[in-house]
Amino acid sequence: MEQYLEVGKITNVHGVMGEVRVQPWADSPEFLCQFKTLYVDKTHWPIQVERARVHKNMVILKLHGVTDVPSALAMRNAVLYIDRKDVDLPAGSFFLADLYGLEVRDAQSGQVLGKVADVLTLPANNVYVVRGGERELMIPAVPQFIAETNPEGGYLRVNLMEGL
User: Fold this and answer.
1) Do residues 18 and 69 lie in contact, with contact meaning Cβ atoms separated by under 8 Å?
2) What is the DSSP string of 86-146?
3) Which domain holds residue 154?
4) Phi, psi at residue 64, to the nearest 5°?
5) Around Cβ 135, how many Cβ atoms within 10 Å?
6) Nearest-angstrom CA–CA distance, 58 and 66
């Protein structure tokens, strides 16, 4: 499992005091507001968060050392990461990043159907794209179809319906 997980991208400057506007890549923008340290781009350079708030489904951050418009502009397009050890997920919760590569098994027969190759985040629910088996499958991530999600064990058990 990856230690650092992508959580958003700095899209622009906000105001004249060095704040930046971040497009969050989490279930809710509030999730991103809880972190005191974020990591920038692939180098995972740590930066301290002085303030964070949600504004119109975006996150406005005041980052340590980013004090004016030019320094905020220099951060534009940077991808922000969190360290997974800084997160205390509720029981039964997991990061979508941990689903990629999980072996997908039929809950009834135990047959391996492939591996999770992609996760589509659609308005109604997520859809897991499974490849590597006899055919590509698209499985809605709802309790009716997902019998067990076990990232630690490396597998996902699914209930297939006729025609799926």
Assistant:
1) yes
2) G--PPTT---GGGTTT-EEEETTT--EEEEEEEEEE-SS-EEEEEESSSS-EEEE-STTTE
3) 96-158
4) -60, 130
5) 8
6) 18
Helices H / strands E in the chain, number of each: 2, 12
Looking at the structure, tell me whether residues 103 and 53 fall in a common domain: no
Within 10 A of 121 (CB to CB), how many other CB atoms are there?
11
Q: Taking CA 102 as the corner, what is the angle to CA 99 and CA 104, rounded to the nearest 5 degrees?
A: 115
| The overall pTM is greater than 0.85 | no
> How many structural domains does the chain have?
2
Do the strands 45-55 and 37-40 form a parallel or antiparallel pair, or are they unpaired? antiparallel
Taking only the tens place, the pLDDT of each residue in 58-74 is 999 999 999 999 999 99
Longest CA–CA separation in the chain, Å:
60
Residue 100 has pLDDT above 60, yes or no: yes
- Establish if 139 belongs to a structural domain: yes
Q: pLDDT tens digits for 118-152?
A: 999 888 899 999 999 889 999 999 999 999 999 98
